[in-house]
Amino acid sequence: MIRWVAVGVLACSAGSLWAQPMLETGYNTYGYPGLIDMPAAHARPDGELAFTSSYFQKQLRNTLTFQITPRLSGSFRYANLWDINNADFRFDRSFSLHYEIATETRNRPAIAIGLNDFLGTGVYRSEYLAVSKTLTPRFRVTGGIGWGRFAGIGGFTNPLSIFGDQFRDRETRTGNQGGEVEVDQLFQGDAAFFGGLEYQATDKLSLAIEYSSDAYRLERVSTFDYFAPVNIGATYRLRPGVHLSAHYLYGSELGVQLSFALNPKNPPAFGGLDKGPPPVVPRPAGSARALGWTFEPENRGRIRSDLSVALAATGLELHGLSFGPGTARLEIENDTYVAQAQAIGRAARAMTGIMPASVDTFVIVPVVNGIAGSQITLRREDIEALESDLDGAWKSLARARIETPETPLQPRAGLYPRFEYDLKPYLSPSLFDPDQPVRADFGAELSARYEPAPGFVLKGAVRKKIVGNLDQSTRPSTSVLPRVRSEFNIYEREGDPTIPELVATRFFRAGPELYGRLTLGYLEPHFAGISSELLWKPLDSRLSLGLEVNYVRQREFKQLFGLRSYEIATGHGSAYYDFGNGFTGQLDVGRYLAGDWGATISLDRTFRNGWKIGGFATFTDVSFDDFGEGSFDKGIRITVPISWISGTPTRDTFSTTIRPVTRDGGARLNVSDRLHDLLNDTQKPGLRSGWGRFWR
Amino acid sequence: MGAVLEMMRALILALALSACSAPQAPDPRKVLSRAQLDQLDTPLLLAEIDRLDTVATLIPRGENRGMITWQTGGQVALMFRDGVLVGTRGLGDDLMSADVSNTRAMLAGQAIPEFYPRFHSGLDGTFQTTFRTFQCQRIAAEPETITIFGRPHATTRTDERCVSPGLDVTNSYWRDGSGLMWKSRQWISKNVGYVLTERLVR
After folding, report:
1. Best residue in A384, A388, A687, A696 to probe B by mutation, most B CBs within 10 Å?
2. Which residues contact A667 (CB under 8 A, 6 or more apart)?
3. Per-residue pLDDT for A182 more than 80?
4. Which of residues B19 and A350 earns the better pLDDT score?
5. pLDDT for residue B18
6. Fewest CB within 10 angstroms: A18, A106, B12, B92, which?
């Protein structure tokens, strides 16, 4: 009896009505949630990012999968196929989606629907409906029905044909360039059943057996000997997130698989190893109200230098400090903390130790490239009272006033002009290129930055490659469009050393909620010219609108000072929208580098710790045929905050864009310091989402 | 003479603090001696975290409304109220803040219910505040003489058991008759575990 009560309590505290399964369905050979070669219904934990590499007899599949929402995951796959369909070798790139329609409950199984290779050239084209039920905490059974490739064994007339005869037959793909969704084929033609069992033998070892409905029609001819539709597998957890599997496939082949998973929500150093903040120094009781004096001007210099030292010790730069009645207005530059709120919290604490007792209001203005997107007003007594408060983060946010700054910046004397330089290593990867999945250059980058006045930035960099193989891409461009991007490999080959960027930029406020940027020079590795931008970004709005107009000329392959003859006016109207649930969307409409007109739609999942994972697609008036392989420009982009990896505070990030193929249609200029990203975290939504770090 | 003494104190303090910046730094327990500690007139606290394999000494760096912030040379901070831990910084899975008013009342011998709550706040990997509530109970209180660097202290050891879903922790406090916390073992968070503190210099 007592045992039953205990079990009940445990189950309730875990938030479910039945015993939590020990078993966790992992990634299959295609890198999406599944058994061995077949799908299963359970989704992976929300936000998980996984890389799976699996190999068996002349076929290697590398897959990147992101659990986009708690139910939906998307995969991008890159397969090396030797001797397939009597061809020598092919690379095949494909996308998959897995959607968990229903999560498992005590009485109901988990149900998922999925699409494979719905965009690519079609080798792995299949659709499925999978149903999984956990029978005991260690035992799970899965069954499903598949179409396309998954209807190869034991196929029968499509049950969906009761909805119409068009479901009865599946047409072969019309052999397009890839990229086009041929919706009219989905869930058509014969269907077949598949299924399997999973068993968690120990904490680290799990076993699976499955009946596969995939006949491997293209492969069985020349790739491997197919005997039976049954696969068995064993998966061993090497460490959390890292799994090694061995498979015995189709009665004839051994396969291996390694998967790495991480979750942006779970940094290895948890909240980070940031050093202790400056402690709050409270005013002695009664001191503030007793004295109505303003302090002597000569003291202000000392206050300014003391505060400058205190801020520098905590990783912040004092940009300006001015005084009003009972108020100190501090401008700071944060080059250290991912969350601006943390910089503001530290600046406020540093101020408590230095400001005269008569100052009872702190106004803190985060400055980025000489412009300010907001000012935060804090009462000194709240800083004193909430340092040790249990709910201090929320209370301090509730009591803070966040507004659009009205006074222009007042930089401290001697701050401008300023000059800084940096020498650091760079890593420039090229992932999932059609000929080679991983290429990269590693080298040294010397960068310098000169700011003669607030908002006026001259910056540049020189790169010297030390080692790398980006120059080994020899695929010639076959583009019928102006070759604005497709000759990127010539740039990689001929440029060393290079000047990736050398620009003069003016940042300015053009109105209360209007910001501007004007950039002139060598804007990016392939283009030089002039770029201008206006951004309307209200302090507390989910929507912001931008307009960018550029006139650029193509740079020489050497990427030094020379220019080629191609020039173009390009630009976009952009709408940015924050959905408020971690997703941000962007729509850009305009003229692209090859002179094509169209629109780019992007969707990113932004984690509050700085991770960003998203995708984009561009459709322009270039026909799919003229565009070439892939039919239109699309890709996946990932931003990883270095602080997430290292645990130490830094605003450095690593970003990469993965394009299945780089062509010339829908290509956009890559000018740096676009205003939206620059200002976003200093405005209300950005400040709010990082406010948990205010007292960090 | 005074100046020399001052310099020696500064040196010992520097030595004591340098021991804490890196986990590989020498163990302050091996570096420091009773004779050296007697030279110091700055309060000094020793803190050891098993899980992080680290021992360090800390000095007070701030006081605000009864909360004292102690810091190591490497700027790891521990915050206490009457010797009861209310916050940590620089450890990763830090205790952001804690409401320990019932624990303090219990230690002070005030009348409180047998089971009393304790509240902790932390920060998750996406910068959001998390809260945890414990139900606590005093499970032991007995006199115990402890020795810190060769010096005995007559204390009362009080153990407090605190339970929260999926967690069962025991905090121990060794206080003298004046209420000074000479030694303690207090729980910080799931991933940091316990901190053991010893007051080296009053």
Report:
1. A388
2. A484, A485, A592, A593, A594, A633
3. no
4. A350
5. 45
6. A106
The strand pair at B67-71 and B54-64 is best described as antiparallel
pLDDT for A87 equals 75
pTM: 0.90
pLDDT digits (tens, 9 = 90+) for A251-306: 999 999 999 999 999 999 888 999 999 999 999 876 655 455 556 667 888 999 99
- Cα(A607)–Cα(A583) distance, integer angstroms: 9
Pick from A387, A605, A645, A693 the residue to mutate for testing the B interface (most B CBs within 10 Å).
A387
Question: What is the number of CB-based contacts under 8 A between chain A and chain B?
Answer: 112
Asked whether the predicted pLDDT for residue A308 surpasses 50, the reply is yes
Alpha carbon A564 to chain centroid distance?
34
Residue B76 vs residues A276, B69, B91: alpha-carbon distances, Å: 5, 10, 7
ipTM of the complex: 0.90
CA A282 – CA A394 distance, rounded (Å): 20
User: How far does CA A199 lie from the centroid of its chain?
Assistant: 34
Half-sphere exposure for A157 (CA within 13 Å, toward CB): 7
Measured distance CA(A682)–CA(A375) in Å, rounded: 9
DSSP E strand stretches across A57-178 = 59-67, 72-82, 89-102, 110-116, 126-136, 139-148
Name the residue facing A692 among B87, B128, B165 (closest C-beta): B128
Q: Give the pLDDT of residue A118.
A: 82
Inspect the interface and report whether the beta carbons of A389 and B125 lie closer than 8 Å. Answer: no
Tally the residues of chain B: 202
Rounded-to-integer distance, Cα A415 and Cα B157, Å: 57
Residues of B with CB under 8 A from a CB of A: 61-65, 67, 69, 71, 74-77, 79, 81, 86-87, 89-94, 96-99, 119, 121-129, 131, 165-166, 191
Test B127 with A384 for CB contact under 8 angstroms.
no
What is the residue-wise DSSP string for A636-689? EEEEEEHHHHH-S----EEEEEE-S---STT-----S--HHHHHHTTSHHHHHH
Residues of A with CB under 8 A from a CB of B: 13, 264-267, 269-282, 339, 384-385, 387-394, 607-609, 647, 689-693, 695-696
Alpha-carbon distance of B88 to A74, in angstroms, equals 39
Q: Phi-psi bin for A367: left (phi > 0), alpha (psi -120 to 50), beta?
A: beta
Look-up of token digits 């998966």:
A235
3-state helix, strand, coil in chain A (%, to 5): 15, 45, 40
Structure tokens at A36: 């061995």
**B64, A270: Cβ pair inside 8 Å?**
no
pLDDT in the model for residue B21 = 42
Chain A CA closest to residue B133: A390
Closest by CA position to A534, among listed A577, A573, A502: A573
Residue B176 reports pLDDT greater than 60? yes
A279 CB neighbours in chain B (<8 A) are 61-64, 69, 77
Q: Is B191 in Cβ contact with A273 (below 8 Å)?
A: no
Average model confidence (pLDDT) across chain A: 90
Q: How many CB atoms lie within 10 A of CB A422?
A: 10
Nearest to B98 by CA among B159, B184, B187, B197: B187
Q: Do B92 and A277 touch (CB under 8 A)?
A: no
C-beta atoms of A274 and B125 within 8 A = no
- Residue owning tokens 């995951």: A73
Q: Which chain A residue is nearest to residue B191, measuring alpha carbons?
A: A270
Hey, which residues does A211 pair with through a beta bridge?
A195, A230
**Residue of A270, A280, A687 to mutate, interface with B, max B Cβ within 10 Å:** A270
Do A280 and B64 lie within an 8 Å CB cutoff? yes
